[in-house]
Design a protein that fits this description.
- It is built from four helices and two strands, in the order ααββαα.
- It is mainly alpha-helical and 135 residues long.
- It has a domain at 21-82.
- Strands 1-2 form a two-stranded antiparallel sheet.
- Helix 1 packs antiparallel against helix 2 (43-62).
- The chain is elongated.
Length: 135
């Protein structure tokens, strides 16, 4: 017996035209609040309050930053702003105020022994054996 496995379970359903339920609530809430402000307040004061409400409503509906909804970004912003922050400072000690003189490093030998793959395996095996003896 074969069963159908649901596909795209992480994508929200489009309920109201091209909008999901959440997007529709953001738009309807912003429009409703804008209408109430328009009816209750004088027009010059209402416009000053309607613009941010409409902008927030549109951002919540349409803006995604790094494939994350704007609500997550807004939440992270407020958590960062109002959460206590811990700054740790460590003092750096200076040895002297005079600039250090450059010391010449001895040149590395031109003929350094090369580590072959078989030698590397031998060293690894011997380290494993020593580790097993300690246990």
């Amino acid at each position: 017996m074969r069963f159908r496995v649901p596909q795209f379970i992480d994508i929200e359903d489009k309920i109201f035209g091209p909008f999901t339920f959440k997007e529709f609530v953001y738009l309807a809430g912003g429009a409703g609040l804008s209408y109430v402000l328009y009816k209750v307040l004088p027009i010059y004061l209402a416009i000053l309050l309607i613009l941010p409400v409409a902008a927030l409503s549109l951002c919540l509906t349409f803006v995604k930053i790094n494939n994350k909804p704007f609500l997550d970004i807004l939440q992270s912003f407020f958590l960062y702003m109002f959460q206590s922050k811990l700054y740790i400072w460590t003092k750096e000690y200076k040895s002297s105020t005079k600039p250090k003189e450059e010391t010449k490093k001895p040149e590395e030998s031109k003929y350094a022994p090369k580590l072959t793959e078989s030698r590397l395996k031998d060293v690894a095996w011997s380290l494993d054996v020593l580790d097993m003896k300690k246990k």
